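Friendly challenge for the regulars: who can give me the structure tokens for this chain first? No prize, just bragging rights.
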Amino acid sequence: MKPKIIILARDCDSTNVVYNYLKKYFDINAVVFETPIPRKKQFLNRAKRLGYISAVSQVIFFLCIAPIIKRFSRKRKAEIFKQYELDETGPPKEIIKRIRYANTEEGRSVIRELKPDLVLVNGTRIISKKTLESVPATFINIHTGITPAFRGVHGGYWAMATGKKDLFGTTVHYVDTGVDTGGIIEQVFIEPPKQDNFYTYPYLQYASVLPVLKNVIQSFVDGNKPLPKSPVTTESELWFHPTVFQWLRNLRRTYLFVLICSFLQF
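First reply, four minutes later:
Bragging rights claimed.
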């Protein structure tokens, strides 16, 4: 009997890319979309953890800088999608389930009803022990960063920003109750071209990991659960969204300086 595979994820283009790639090789029984945290609550959570100055600076970056980066990176995104044959078309409506939060009885109930054997996680909030134990399934996560050195968000960007290009890549790992602390299944390392930046790094990371992710899932389908691998580094740090000041300071290392110069010349 084929194992039942579901995707538990945030409703975004990266999830669509993953779904469209995997559906060519496996039966994806359902895609469960988790509702994002309201922006006000996100801000208050960040302020509580990082302080109000950092939280406000992050908001300034995402409201004022990120849209500009996105606008002038559209051509590069299209090139990546063409090169790697990526597809961001959404899953068919009949297999989509929507929940407010996986760590609620409603969320656990939906997951239990689907009776999955393998749950592929992408972009959700931290999953609690109670939720992980609510079904006899294995949870694996796609993380755009090399763990444990770059846990949290924007792992590729922070690898470049801190001068650690050798740790630019993507991790497929088992899910536990920590932030990207689960056992490593596979890691893919690449060096991004100089025309890439904060906005396009994740697309490269997903594109490069998809064939490896396919092999990982095939192992589960074949009844061979991979053993966790040793990390390539003992460094471990949790990273957050950049502030506008951090972004400005890291321009040269993250190659966006090249994009800006090209635009000014144009």
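The first strand starts at residue 5 and ends at 10. The chain has ten helices and nine strands. Your move, everyone else.
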